[in-house]
C-alpha cells in the first residue's frame, strides 16, 4: 500500500546498549530526578538475571525492558527528524522480534504507539508519515497489524489535508487486503473508511471505485447490503463522469437490491433513454430528492448514453444528424454540440461533416455487452472477413494482369474494410 526508505539510528551495539539508548531518548528534556526514576527500573531489569539463567528467562527480561521503553514513549521525542525516525525504527524492530505479529501483546503495543503518533504535534507530520510507512513495511505482508497502521496513516493524511501523499489504488488495496489475515468484516470496514475519507476530501470519483469494492466485500447475509447498494447506485447516477453502469449491475449486492426504489432508474440508464428517465422523474420526485439526484444532470447523462447506443449501430457508417436529433429529442442545430460532448466523454469517436449533415462513426461504446452486442460484433467481423477475402482476390487478379487501376480500386476497398475492422 505504501513504501518509503527506512532510516535507522541506534543500530549498533548489544541489546542492552540499544535499549539504554532508547530509554535515554525517551527521557530527553525531563528533569534529572524524573530521568533517574525512569533509568533505575531499566538498571534493575538488566541486572537481575545472571548469565546462566535459562534462555526463556532472558526473553522475559528483554520483553520487560522493551515494555519499559514503550511505557515511557509519550510522543515522538525531542530529536531531529532522523533521530525520531531512527528511534521508532529500532523500537519497531525489537517489538516485532520479541513478539509474534499475531499475538495480542503485539497488537496492544502497536495500537499504543499509533495513538502516541496520532497525538503528536501536527508540525511533525513529515516524519510521522515516514515512521508509519516504515512500520507498515516492517510488518509481514500477511500481518493483521498492517490494517490499523495504514488506517492511522490515512487519518493523519486526511487531518492534514494531504491525502495525495498516500497512494490509494483500488487494485493495490484489494490485493493487500487479500494477503492480510483479518476477518471479512474488518476488510469491509476498512473499505468503508476509505470511501468516507475520499468523500470528505472531495474525491467522489475515487470514492465511487471503493464503493464498488465495499459493496462486493459484504456477505449476502449482511444487513447493510441494500443500503450500501443504494448508496452505490445513487453515487453512480449522481457523478457526471460515471457513464459505465455495467460493472455496478454485476455486483451481487446491487442485484439483490432489485426491489429498491432506485433500481428501476439504474435499469433505465443501462437499457433505455430520455423518455423513460423523464417518466421516472415525474413519478418519483421524492426519490430524486432523497438521493440528491439532479433531474437535468440525469437527462444529460442518459442523452449521452442514448447517443452512444445509437452510434454503436452505425460503426463504420454515417449517422445522420436527423437521427441523432430524434433520438436525443433535441433541435437539429444542437446536434454538433452533443456530438462534441459525447466524443469528449469518450463514448464515441467519429468525424463531423456539415456538408453531409452526418457523423462518421469510427468507434462507439456499448452500454452493456450481452448476446445482442456479441451478435452485432460477429456480424461486423464476418462482413469484414468476406470483404477482405474479396479484396485479396481482386488484388491477386489485378497483379496477374498488371492493371494498376484495378489494384488502386482494390486498395480503396481494403481501406474501407480496415475501417470496419477497426470499428469491430
Structure summarized in a few sentences:
The chain contains 21 helices and three strands. With 424 residues, it is mainly alpha-helical.
Task: Provide a descriptive summary of the structure in words.
This protein has 424 residues and is mostly helical. Helices cover 67% and strands 4% of the residues. It contains 21 helices and 3 strands. The longest helix is centred in the last third of the chain and has 31 residues, at 371-401. The two termini are 38 Å apart. Residues 2-10, 52-57 and 416-424 have low confidence and may be disordered.
How far apart, in Å, are the first and last alpha carbons? 38 Å
Instruction: Kindly state the number of beta strands.
Output: 3
Largest sheet, strands/sense/barrel = 3 strands, antiparallel
Number of helices: 21
Strand order of the largest sheet: 1-3-2
Structural class call reads: mainly alpha
Number of domains: 4
Mean pLDDT across residues: 85
Q: Stretches where pLDDT falls below 50 for ≥5 residues?
A: 2-10, 52-57, 416-424
Write down the overall geometry. Answer: elongated
| Helical content class | 55-70%
The string of secondary-structure elements, in order, is: HHHHHHHHHHHHHHHHHEHHEEHH
The rounded Rg comes to 32 Å
The fraction of residues in strands falls at under 5%
Helix/strand layout:
Layout (H helix, E strand, L loop, with lengths): L14 H12 L5 H16 L7 H17 L9 H18 L5 H16 L5 H14 L7 H14 L10 H10 L4 H17 L3 H14 L7 H14 L7 H4 L2 H5 L6 H9 L2 H10 L1 H6 L4 H18 L5 E3 H8 L6 H10 L3 E6 L4 E7 L6 H31 L2 H20 L1
Antiparallel strand pairs: 1-3, 2-3
Family: Belongs to the CSN7/EIF3M family. CSN7 subfamily.
GO molecular function: translation initiation factor activity
Subcellular location: Cytoplasm
